[in-house]
Amino acid sequence: MITKTTKIWKFFSHFFVSIDQLGNALAGGNPDNTISARVGYYNHHYNFESGKIPWYWYWFEKIIDFTFCPVDGPNHCHEAYHNDAGEVFDDSTLTNFLIGIAATIIIIPSCIVIALVLYLLSVLRLVKPKTIERDKNLIKRFETCCLILEGAQQEMEHHGLDFDLQEVKQQFKTLMEKAEMIEQGLNKNE
């Protein structure tokens, strides 16, 4: 059985994520995001002025979720967003045309090929949907946050603060407010 802990799975998953990020960049998105995370963001976390999700984001999610169901289970795009939640996503109004082209050239043909392979591997019982371990995901995100803050602290110590700090202080205040909200959420479950 090929699982997320096997070397072959890790190799191919890293390889395909890099291709996915390239596809997202070609479609006008952040090169550090996957197409799936971008689609999950626009379907679940972006506030469109009309209050409705544009049809293409909706259908991209359906197609991509179906494609990766044998290895990720349902909600692949939304879970991918949670894995990239700390990233900056593009403004969809600027990329509507690009995402339409990307769908025609990248998303739909890729998903057809990938779905054929994954469903065949699933039928042969070589792959199965992964189990999402929320506790480990949150620990990993908090560890990443700590590393990012440590890097900011080192930058401040090594290079000083000889510029206007108003915007930095405002961002730090926002960060502390988010940290308080997270702490309250954690304390609810005690």
In short:
The protein is an all-alpha fold and 190 residues long.
What does this structure look like?
With 190 residues, this protein is mainly α. It has 2 domains: 117 residues, no CATH class; 55 residues, no CATH class. The longest helix has 32 residues. The model has no long low-confidence stretch (mean pLDDT 84).
Helix/strand layout:
Layout (H helix, E strand, L loop, with lengths): L6 H20 L8 H10 L10 H18 L3 H8 L8 H32 L10 H26 L6 H23 L2
Helix pairs in contact: 2-3, 2-4, 3-5
| Number of helical elements | 7
Assign a percent range to the helix content.
over 70%
The gross shape turns out to be globular
**Structural domains: how many:** 2
Report mean pLDDT, rounded to a whole number.
84
What is the H/E order? HHHHHHH
Q: Outline the low-pLDDT stretches.
A: none
What is the β-strand count?
0
Task: Name a few traits of the molecule.
190 residues, 72% helix, 0% strand, mainly alpha
